Amino acid sequence: MTDLTTSPAGAVTTVERGRFDADEHGWFGEPGLFGGRFMPEALVAALDELTEAWQDAMADPTFVGEFDQVLREYAGLPSPLFHARRLSDMVGCRVLLKREDLNHTGAHKIRNVIGQALLTKRMGKKRVIAETGAGQHGVASATAAAYFGLDCTVYMGAVDTRRQALNVARMQLLGATVVPVESGSATLKDAINEALRDWVASVDHTAYLFGTAAGPHPFPSMVRDFVRGTGDEARAQCLEQYGVLPDAIGACVGGGSNAIGLFTAFLDDPEVEVYGFEAAGDGVDTPRHAATIHAGESGVLHGARTYVLQDEDGQTKESHSISAGLDYPGVGPQHAQLAHSGRATYVPVTDAEAMEAFALLARTEGIIPAIESAHAIAGGLRVAERLAAEKGPDATILLNLSGRGDKDMGTAIEYFGLGEADGRQPQPQGAAAQGVQA
Amino acid sequence: MSVAEAFEKARSEGRAVLVGYLPAGFPDVEGGIDALLTMVEAGCDVIEVGVPYTDPVMDGPTIQAAAQQALDRGFRIADVFRTVEAVAATGTPTVVMTYWNPVERYGVDRFAQDLAAAGGAGLITPDLTPDYAPEWIGAADKRDLDKIFLVAPSSTDARIASTVAASRGFVYATAVMGVTGARASTSDLAGPLVERTKRAASAHDLPVGVGLGVSNGEQAAEVASYADAVIVGSAFVRALLEHPEDREAGLAALRSLTEDLAQGVRRRA
């Protein structure tokens, strides 16, 4: 049951600064450590204008009401909180999944783009640009642009346009222009670079719909405000449906928007453990991973001071993850601060662990998750086993199922050798899986 | 010679300063030094040595390609100091232009120290504005280095004033809204921006340099009519990129381009 009194727009009318909010310069926690705005002067006026428009909008009941209405009627929110019973039986305590995979366009990202597109209209701009990795933010941006009647250009690494041809087609069908980016490593970080280059030249009539809670101030805070409905809904749903707060919550972290969307509502609940699951690729002891908080060091990337995968000269290293959406060598600065302060714990999850969880969730609950979200399932089940051992069957973990896996079927076909009706099935490995099959 | 002295000299000669840019390590470290020395000989008054970086969000395709080539050939930060040292030894003021993360990673004070030790005159920081630069400002002041910050057509008068107040050496006016790259025509945004910047800069006696994709003497003369310095980057890079297999031809192209530009800043069309 979903509490229909919960606002999908969340508690966004709060304008007072809480202890987890950034200051007026964009610093999270101690000034100078994480966040800020390391940007060309040419973009500062636009970022100031955006900051003012966002803060003004958040305090305007008309804007918040329209945001809420569009999320409800168009995007299908609030999303349900689902008790995954077979997974719960398997690990020995209650596993709840926030079903953001059921949202329009298939992920939490619709919340962010509806918020930013609504703000674009309010600011009187007619064109939006976006970067995309796997294509989910690009599809969401193209969708919002179609809905609001805005011109839309999406920058996507040339490597990713080939990996995610289906999403390129979706964006094109929705009326967006998709520009393949050949520079650098031709992946997400280069798509961001190219979008910023466009924005420097087009800023007077164009809004940059940034796809995650990273980048220069105000993006980390603004995106957080637009996606925090995930956690606001989940917290209210958990209390209503189970009468308790969860013992732990968890989400995957690339740039970190779905995670900050879930975490925000719970940060002031000290009894709730908070986990972010980073993509460990082939393993954090190999060069092929995207575990930025675990293995990165403080630096400046795409406008914010945060943890960055970089070499000793400060050159950005190429990241790797089987999930394109987590394949980013930076992370949102608020996550860096939450890790630094100890309020949240960030744990690496390998490609293999994520793919095991991907197959497991499909077979135990009938849900094919995005591979990104499968990282949260894999890491979350490890936490759940510990909670069950410590607190027994009444322990509760709430995980963000941030997106659905249709887009990942190409990867799954290749990884598991699927698609030929030869009687084979993907076999989840490991002790946990044995319990399910029993 | 300091940057300020180079501007003083040009002013006394009734002309603008020619600032020439190349990224370090392009086409390789020694080749880059040769190229910069050629530019000095042929008439550049101030040299900007760029630091190749993996994520150059302010650069267009020409400079991106050069920086990528330098990185692919194993460019290291130490190569910047080597390059600066070789160029500064000619007596020509030499500044470094860099995205911020390589400096931060190297250590801000350590970078300032090594830059000063190499004879470098200062730093141009395209993605670091004075309001986020307290550490760099402190280190620069300690080492007597120039802090060259940027203003843009979109900058408010208040931001221009605070940027000018924080700068030393000169103020860098990016006179087009867009990335670096040679342009066929000069921007009509440049004049008004320089005028606004000069108004703020006059109290500090700070010169204003303009970068907007100048690629020939005629454009240089036009910009020199209202700016204290004409900054040229992509056109130099392109001269080298067009002769990938023939170093001598590349240097010859660089020399004739520099001479054309140097005549331009003396013409003040």
From TrEMBL, chain A:
Protein known as: tryptophan synthase
This enzyme's EC code(s): 4.2.1.20
Cofactor: pyridoxal 5'-phosphate
Cited PANTHER family: TRYPTOPHAN SYNTHASE (PTHR48077:SF3), TRYPTOPHAN SYNTHASE-RELATED (PTHR48077)
EC category name: lyase
InterPro entries: Trp_synth_beta, Trp_synth_beta/beta-like, TrpB-like_PALP, TrpB-like_PALP_sf
Gene3D superfamilies found in the cross-reference section: 3.40.50.1100
Pathway per the UniProt entry: Amino-acid biosynthesis; L-tryptophan biosynthesis; L-tryptophan from chorismate: step 5/5
Lineage of producing organism: unclassified sequences, metagenomes, ecological metagenomes
Ranges where the Tryptophan synthase beta chain-like PALP domain occurs: 76-403
Family matches, as Pfam families: PALP
Gene Ontology MF, one: tryptophan synthase activity
The reaction(s) this protein catalyses: (1S,2R)-1-C-(indol-3-yl)glycerol 3-phosphate + L-serine = D-glyceraldehyde 3-phosphate + L-tryptophan + H2O
Keywords: Amino-acid biosynthesis, Aromatic amino acid biosynthesis, Lyase, Pyridoxal phosphate, Tryptophan biosynthesis
From TrEMBL, chain B:
Gene3D superfamilies according to UniProt: Aldolase class I
Record's keyword annotation contains Ribonucleoprotein: no
Keyword NADP: no
Molecular function GO labels: tryptophan synthase activity
Pfam families noted in UniProt: Trp_syntA
GO cellular component: cytosol
UniProt-listed Enzyme Commission number(s): 4.2.1.20
Pathway noted in the entry: Amino-acid biosynthesis; L-tryptophan biosynthesis; L-tryptophan from chorismate: step 5/5
InterPro entries listed in its UniProt record: Aldolase_TIM (IPR013785), RibuloseP-bd_barrel (IPR011060), Trp_synthase_alpha_AS (IPR018204), Trp_synthase_suA (IPR002028)
Catalytic activity: (1S,2R)-1-C-(indol-3-yl)glycerol 3-phosphate + L-serine = D-glyceraldehyde 3-phosphate + L-tryptophan + H2O
Class of enzymatic activity (EC top level): lyase
Alphabetical UniProt keywords: Amino-acid biosynthesis, Aromatic amino acid biosynthesis, Lyase, Tryptophan biosynthesis
Subunit annotation: Tetramer of two alpha and two beta chains.
HAMAP family tied to this protein: Trp_synth_alpha
Primary role: The alpha subunit is responsible for the aldol cleavage of indoleglycerol phosphate to indole and glyceraldehyde 3-phosphate.
The protein's name: tryptophan synthase
Organism per entry: freshwater metagenome
Taxonomic lineage of the native organism: unclassified sequences, metagenomes, ecological metagenomes
